[in-house]
Specification:
mainly alpha, 2 domains, two-stranded antiparallel ribbon, about 5% strand
Length: about 120
Amino acid sequence: MARIAGVDLPNKSVKIALTYIYGIGRTSALEICEKGNINPDEKMNNLSSEDVNDLRKLIENEYKVEGRLRTEVALNIKRLMDIGCNRGLRHRRGLPVRGQRTKTNARTRKGKKKTVAGKKK
């Protein structure tokens, strides 16, 4: 089992296995395969150790993945919260950030329903 950027990659085609790394999607995976001269449809277990090392070096040098990327995203969110902009306030309150409706839906961000006592008019 190949290990790149601290992630154990499964024995799937290279283009799919690389997406298990945080920060690498389908497009980036195909780009990496092209730069490393590796067949994207080949299984991970069939790659030689040299190919795996080449992939590892390519990802470390040219892409921001895993820990560094997570840290950067967290710092960006913290910056928004510190300056008190609308997006930062939405993050702070645990509400949807990108303009979605909240009267109904938004359960993923808001969490489980909190029942409010019956309102009498």
